[in-house]
Amino acid sequence: MFFTHTKNFSVKSLALIIWFGATLLAGCSDDDHNGMSSSSSSISSASSSSVSSVSVSSSSLASSSSSSSPYLGYWYAPAYGYVLSISVENNFYKLDTYSVTKNSCLLQNIDVDLSLDDLKQGYDYSNLAQEVLLQKKGDYLSGIEYEKLELFPMACKENLQKVKYDTGYIFDAKKDFEIFWQSFSELYINFELRGINWDEVYEKAVKSVGTIKNEEELFEFLSMLIAPLGDAHAVLITTPLTQDLDKSIDAARESDDTRIFSQHTQLTLHDKLLNEYLETIESGSEITETQMEDAENYILTGVENLKNIIFGYAKENSDIEVRAEGEIAWFKTKDNVGYLFIGSMSDYSESMSTIASDLAAGESAIKEALKDLADTDGLVIDARFNTGGEDEVALNFVRHFMSQSQVVYSKSAGHGALATPMKEVVLHPQSDNIYLKPTAVLVSGDTVSAAEVFTIAISSLPQVAVIGEPTSGALSDVLVKRLTSDILFGISNETYTDTQGKNYEGIGISPDIAVPFATIQERQGGYDGGLDRAIDWIKSAH
Fold first, then answer.
1. pLDDT tens digits, residue range 323-367?
2. Within 13 A of 98's CA, how many CA atoms are on the CB side?
3. Scanning 72, 75, 192, 532, which has its CA 20 to 30 A from the CA of 462?
4. For the whole model, what pTM was predicted?
5. If we measure between CA atoms, which residue out of 472, 528, 536, 509 comes closest to residue 341?
């Protein structure tokens, strides 16, 4: 809500919990959208070797052979470490989602009282080369693909772990550490890129995990293990968990007691402003409560100053339009250049947003903005404050800047034997409100997740230049997992590449034109170097 309220960059937990909620990879989708684009590759067919990390037991569920519904049975997504168990009773379906590793199995989420139509809205069934379920994630995003299992995984039959809400649960830090480490070992894609030897991490950590007495200590312990990754999507959250993980995450978003940990690859605006403040106090001394409050005020003042500087570029007597709960705003500059602020790719409603509501609100705002700015000489899209949200919302924006259908990026999941084939994402232009004039996209280290998907997609268009600092380097969806205790964690298990095949995960998208963001000199001088450079580039393009 950057343009309606002061945005508190010192509180990072809300944005990260929103990522978890937005990218929760279990359960059925309630959203059903019309065609916008397509995936150009065929459904992947995981080889038998890719299933080898999860052994199967000698007993099986009464499956599709005894029912008219092909959805019944067990389904496995190797690159995501998920097993679905779908059963039916009294014409209502039950979908259990298990999180599995080579040695462990946890019941992560339960969906009950589902109709067959509910299942069909969430998953497509195919029986070509083999039986598969494909999770629906809109018309151009490829969801998780599950292959049919004849038998229940051995780890789930013989080693199903009790979780905290189960009767007889006993906290076991060593067990949770092993599940956590193994999950990252099998699914995380960036150890080499991040320069981390995960086996060495295990050898050091296993020697001290036995001293951990409670969940709070475990949270701190695991935080130290993933901190060196510097990955904004390697996340830890501690919050009360139930069988309905969606509701647990929604509750975490509303709770002041939710604890969260993540690190960023790039320096964020919060970090820049905090470092500026810390330079004003005596080094080496312990920070007092008063100084912490002063630091908070310094950060808030800095953000407010930036907002006022950006507003100052609006043409005199022109309107500054604000929509989507302050996350989208636009105006014209005195140079007849349009400015479009996009503060996030979700949360466009005062109440709890859904993908459908965010798509509708975002589409309404972008159409209105581009109609208002149609007579400008060029456009600046400011994504420097954008902490992500929904890929589908981000890509829908991109469609308004396209003259023809094209590949905008490619995506795969997993690595090694578990890797899925790379799939090209193809977008089609919107039917109206198309903007094809020179367009500059401003980015920074705070441009993360779905905002980076927006950047990688729109940068493939011929009239676009990216200006600013490298983005966060966290494009992968957050693969949500849980431990036996009330700790959720996220893993980056996907690879996004641009149309030239370049991977930006862990590195960030480099701008075409490098310009520092939010320097103290800019704030003191009352100018925005990135916005100035973008306007100059647009003028030179004519």
1. 999 999 999 999 999 999 999 999 999 887 889 999 999 999 999
2. 27
3. 532
4. 0.85
5. 528
